[in-house]
Amino acid sequence: MLRDTLFLATFLASGLLNVPSAFALEASAGKPNIVFILADDQDAKLNSLDYMPNLQKQLVQKGTHFRKHYCTVAWCCPSRVSLWTGKAAHNTNVTNVEPPYGGYPKFIDQGLNDNWLPVWLEHEGYNSYYTGKLMNYHHVLNYFDPFPKGFAGSDFLLDPGTYSYLNPIFQRNKSPPVHHTNEYNTDLVVEKGLGFIEEAVQAKKPFFVTIAPIVLNTNITLAGESSKSSPIAQTSSPPIPAPRHANLFEDAVVPRTPSFNPDVPSGADWIAELPQLSPENVTFNDLWYRQRLRSLQVIDELIDSVIEKLDAHGVLDNTYVIYSSDNGYHISQHRLAPGKGCGIEEDINVPLVVRGPGVPSGKTVDLATSHTDLAPTFFSILGITLRDDFDGVPIPVTEKTIEDLESSGKAKEHVQVEFWSKSTGQEYNADYPEVNNTYKAIRIVGSSYGFYYSVWCGGDHELYDMTVDPDQMHNYYTTSSNGTFTTSGNVKINNHTYSTSKISERLDGLLYVLKTCKAKTCSEPWATLMPNTGVTSLAQAMDSKYDAYFAGLTRVEYERCEEGYIADAEGPVFENGEAYSGAGMIKKHRGPIRNRP
């Protein structure tokens, strides 16, 4: 338990005593508002949304559900930073949950505290409010060094109490932290979030309120305060529900999909070597699943309360209510213990539901969207000019923009996924070996086809046809006797049959661009990979006239495995000298791998 003297000393050391001043800009009447509810570790694949009746009633039925929404890093801190900046993790350089490659200290070191959503909104005359978890390693020893910028009001969860369901630590505005002994974490977040909506309405300015409870995350007890930059030892256990929900869903178990603890190993690299879970493991994982569903009920109650409060103040019709999660979660899939960080659908496919002005009711959309698209989407629906350095693009939320994009054939069909770490990301298994879990991947969501392709830092490759194998059980790549990776078999794209080797060449070329893309190159990679060809999709790139180009293109590979983004470990970088010339690839001698700024 933290002592009051620590709080006082930390507070005095900050030298900051004043609550942030009111914003200078006054908004014009009629500007829309946003309430953004951000869950923690919620999957879109294991039926958790089915256990949320208020979300179904208030958001899914009265808004639009984007079913193919993805995080680009399946880990809390890097995912959240990408969400708030509209940039891929390889551009924020926040690639882990703790220093030296991630966490709040890395966010500050990269200069992002001056260049993220609440600061941008402040300049546009919006009041931003935030309560709950901001990001990992935001704790009692660094919350003031400096304070997060851009907020009219904030009440953050802080380590070492962020993930404590019963003994959380909150820090409001620029006041010292408060340790809430034997109080339920998520109920406090709900109370504070509803209070900020009240405060936002009374301020009579357009607002953006974020409510970010830790529901579904592991209950974590940290072993000490440590230092500003060093990791803290921890012990983990299943989520703890509110007492009123403790006995719900007694019969619920992890969905027994084909990937659930399979008899035959699946996946690649260290995942392919996992032993089958024991009956005791499965029983425990089913309990973990139930505890997640139970803890989720508080956020479902929150959704109803948010709608009621907005309606009571007469601002519901001018407010977007948006629901999502930082990353997904797996439990027993591919023999995995409870955790995240993998490229499987359970970890990267996350909820996104939008209700608000002009948003169609009861609509489902299967366009490919990602967390790097959220900041541009917020700008778009609030009428703010898009930034040139956004890696993402606005998600269409009105009936017309959705239909126009669906019918135009110009919808983005790719999501670039990346990960760096030396741990498996398993939440509760002390016997798990510490292994490298660094990979780059691409998820294709076409109108009638879908693929997942990945390259691991150790050399393993994966290719799955997601239309016939949504559980990612049949990897088309195999390892030959001499250690090389080859593919076999055929797949279909728009009723045309292609060899998996031909598909993988195209996907590897696309990943070659995306792994270091910036801004428009991230949203329109084909234009960089194949300029002046008119190619905008995988189907178009399959034309045989491009075979020689892709066969000669440098392949994605790593120089070595690292726990974070280090330029000279990332392998070859796509350069314009390798772009398609119309007659094939312009051959160019590749010198040493250049360091990217």
From TrEMBL:
On whether Nucleotide-binding is a keyword of this UniProt record, the answer is no
Signal peptide range: 1-24
* Reaction it catalyzes: an aryl sulfate + H2O = a phenol + sulfate + H(+)
Q: Which GO terms describe its molecular function?
A: arylsulfatase activity; glycosaminoglycan binding; N-acetylglucosamine-6-sulfatase activity
- The EC code for this enzyme is 3.1.6.1
Which segments of the protein form a coiled coil according to its record? none
Q: What biological processes does GO assign it? A: phenol-containing compound metabolic process
* Residues annotated with 3-oxoalanine (Cys) modification: C76
Gene3D superfamilies named among the record's database cross-references: Alkaline Phosphatase, subunit A
Posttranslational modification, per the record? The conversion to 3-oxoalanine (also known as C-formylglycine, FGly), of a serine or cysteine residue in prokaryotes and of a cysteine residue in eukaryotes, is critical for catalytic activity.
Xref: Pfam families? Sulfatase
Q: Which UniProt keywords apply?
A: Hydrolase, Signal
Q: Name the source's superkingdom.
A: Eukaryota
Q: Please state every residue range assigned to the domain named Sulfatase N-terminal.
A: 32-384
Report the PANTHER family cross-referenced here.
N-ACETYLGLUCOSAMINE-6-SULFATASE FAMILY MEMBER, SD21168P
Q: Which family does it belong to?
A: Belongs to the sulfatase family.
Protein name, please?
Answer: Arylsulfatase
Organism expressing this protein natively: Lophiotrema nucula
